[in-house]
Amino acid sequence: MDTLKETHFADLGERRQGKVRDVYVQPDKLILVATDRHSSFDRIIAHIPQKGAVLNLSSAFWFENTADIVPNHVLDVPDPNVTVAKRLKPLPVEAVVRGYLTGTTSTSIWTRYQAGERIFGGLTLPDGMKKNAKLPSAIFDPTTKEDAHDRTLSLKALVEEGFIEAGLLEKLRKVALALFARGQDVAARHGLLLVDTKYEFGLDADGGLVLIDEIHTPDSSRYWKLDTYEARIATGNEPDYFDKEFLRIWFREHCNPYEDATLPEAPADMVAELSRRYIAIYEQLTGRTFAVDRSIPVAQRIDKNLAKYRMA
Ligand SMILES: Nc1ncnc2c1ncn2[C@@H]1O[C@H](COP(=O)(O)OP(=O)(O)O)[C@@H](O)[C@H]1O
Ligand SMILES: [Mg+2]
User: Are 95 and 190 members of one domain?
Assistant: First the structure.
């Protein structure tokens, strides 16, 4: 299967490699190429056919459907895997929004709730809430965006430690909550619950907030199935969800993904299954058919579609 692992396009500008995207930097724009790299345990564990296109097209769908709430960085989507974006300075805050009491990592709200924490983003939760319960209202639970480890900080601490000015943080909070409400609304109409997500913002020349990076993709967000949610949590089960955990579990069982220098290759049937799941959630969420031209190799197609962005 043809996967997009890494790109090296000529004359598009200085190339930087993120975990998932290859970014070409031009004076006023970024060419963001979403590859099929799949990251976990802070490294690339597999390449999932069509994943890059699913991520990029999902973001494009959501940028279109939220442009009335906040301006975004999109200038053009010249290829299913590519967004040409306004180049902005990212704010050092990740706008995490949570709608449900869930998660398993140390920064997740369920872990913190179980450890006795009750105040989240200005909301005080009662004792005795069950895992995966809906929060009384969505909360803004930002983290810092740092080289080492992102930290969850209170709004007060974010301002005191100099990450962001209070007025701008308040604006960011309102916009993030409005985006999340829209996301929940649109997702529900397609039979899904938007559980949590994170946004990144930049500032334009006039100091206005602009939404950058990606929005409501299956990588930046958690989704559950709407129709089975009530019954499953009432019976103490986990909600049905878009699940990529099975691949992580396989790696944990077959190697030490945190320490081994090289990793075994993921089983082909699991890679194919994950690809199907990405495409299925894209189609359900957007109501659009995933129709990407596979008649020419993906790198060749992108190269052709980016011709007008080449710098002489
Ligand atoms: N419009 C933009 N202006 C500046 N930086 C951006 C913009 N959109 C996205 N970025 C940055 O580009 C990178 C995208 O690549 P990605 O693979 O997601 O990287 P990461 O490994 O940091 O998540 C991120 O670091 C993101 O903050
Ligand atoms: Mg990213």
Answer: yes
Indicate if ligand 1 lies below 6 Å from the C-beta of 85. Answer: yes
**Which stretch of DSSP H or E encloses residue 174?**
helix 166-189
The rounded Cα 73 to chain-centroid distance in angstroms is 15
Please identify, among 202, 234, 266, the residue that sits at the C-terminal boundary of a domain: 234
User: Residue 2's pLDDT band (boundaries 50, 70, 90)?
Assistant: confident
Taking the alpha carbons at both ends of the chain, their separation in whole angstroms is 33
Distance 213 CA to ligand 1 centre (A): 5
**Rounded to the nearest whole angstrom, what is the distance from the C-alpha of residue 228 to the centroid of ligand 2?**
30
What is the reported pLDDT for 198? 97
Integer Cα distance of 254 and 209 in angstroms: 45
pLDDT at residue number 293: 77
The sign one gets for the Cα dihedral 30, 31, 33, 34 is positive
Distance (Å) from CA 153 to ligand 2 centroid: 20
- Is 50 domain-assigned? yes
Atom of ligand 1 nearest to the CA of 88: 3
For range 191-206, the mean pLDDT: 96
Could you tell me the residue range of the domain that residue 286 belongs to?
A: 14-88+249-309
- Say if 295 falls within a structural domain: yes
Is the pLDDT reported for residue 294 higher than 80?
A: no
Q: Which of 204, 234, 264 is the last residue of a domain?
A: 234
Global pTM reads: 0.95
Give the ligand with the smallest distance to the CA of 31: 1
Which ligand does the CA of 146 lie closest to?
Answer: 1
Torsion of CA 211, 66, 80, 10, to 10 degrees: -20
- Is the pLDDT reported for residue 247 higher than 80? yes
CATH code for the domain of 59: 3.30.200.20
- What average pLDDT score do residues 2-15 get? 96
- Considering the domain architecture, whether residues 59 and 159 belong to the same structural domain is answered as no
112 plus 159 within the same structural domain: yes
